[in-house]
Amino acid sequence: MSTLTAPSGITSTASALRRLYFVRFAFAVVWALVMFTMTAKLSPLGIVLLVLYPLFDVGAAVVDARSSRTTGSPALLYVNMAVSLAAAVGVALAAASGVPAVLRVWGAWAIVSGLVQLVVAVPRRTLGGQWPMILSGGISVLAGALFVASAGAEHPVLTGAVGYAVPGGIFFLVSALRLGRAARES
Asked: Rounded to a whole number, what is the distance in angstroms from the first to the last CA of the chain?
């Protein structure tokens, strides 16, 4: 009789991703709850929080890249780090021009990072828990386009951009839970 087990690199990567996804879920929900109080106009605290979100994404991509080296090249995660860092700088600069400019930068970031998330998650399907990440990447692309379009509204607000964090966080939670189940089954 033989027992099938996951290679240790895959198991450790899945475990690290699971922890990271739980942290990302918690951050997204707390961030959104705080930001929802500041969606009509840009306050100094709101600007800091808007810049912090993509910076947190950079940190998460660093952790992801370190933990997933055993299962493949983290090159696309480096792209995500660069894109998210550019988004943080872009949001900080756009804030001086107002909510429409922030929505355009946020939307562009959502589109590009969603595409990267899709391309990273598809090969990771063997780890388990990646279908929510694939869906999240696709939704991010669509949401980004809506943010860019909403920048042209008569009175644009950040509600949609802030609300974008909640489903993203939920997708991370579902992925973390599914990764746990996949680890127990292997």
From this structure: 16
